[in-house]
Amino acid sequence: MASFVEMSRLNKAAVGVHRLLNSRRLEHAFLGGYELALLGSTRGTRDIDVAVKKPFLSGFEKVKEAFVDHADFLVFDGNRTDCINAIHKPTGVHIFVMLEDLPKTLDRSTDASHHLPIYTPTHMFIRTIQSLGLRSKESHRQDLVLLHDKFSLDMAKVYRKVTPLQRDDALRNCLNNERAATILRGLNLRPESDR
User: Which Gene3D superfamilies does UniProt cross-reference here (predicted)?
Assistant: First the structure.
């Protein structure tokens, strides 16, 4: 198993990604394990996840071109048109770029230089539940517990954004982590028809 990447390398790679995306006027936010490290998690990560708001015209091509054209990035071509895999060459850090709608509200990291845009803890909590519904990863279960226990979450927003089906799918992947399962069982979600 590969070891975790040092925070100094992650920060340097994230700043490189941030500068590149800003230079192309591409809205973006960091999330996942890197964001949680910025928020105080000690679990470690091997890569950087960044969500980029898909441009209206030729979205995927514009974002991919930004990375392909920059000497600091090596892009791995593939068949997907919703994400980009790249390596930040100066640090060797893997960058996973997803094209998606960004939350209306973002936070800024406070302990890294350049005040990087990140998801709010509430949006990260919502996204973690949704991710847990798709795949069972212990790091996601740990993230769910950390976000729930450490931050004041906007539960009204959670109740609006997470469906009972998403919660139930996530719960099936949390049965071996009692704390995460308890958090999910405690979400009093209304059916879609009542929203």
Answer: 3.30.460.40
CA distance 28 to 16: 13
Q: Rounded CA gap, 121 and 98, in Å?
A: 19
d(CA 185, CA 195): 19
Q: Could you report the per-residue pLDDT of 92-133, keeping only the tens digit for each? A: 999 999 998 999 999 998 765 678 999 999 999 999 999 999
Closest CA to 183 of 138, 129, 133, 122: 129
Rounded-to-integer distance, Cα 46 and Cα 159, Å: 31
CATH code linked to domain 7-119: 3.30.460.10
pLDDT at 193 over 70: no
Tens of pLDDT, residues 5-21: 999 999 999 999 999 99
State the sign of the Cα–Cα–Cα–Cα dihedral 89, 98, 158, 154: positive
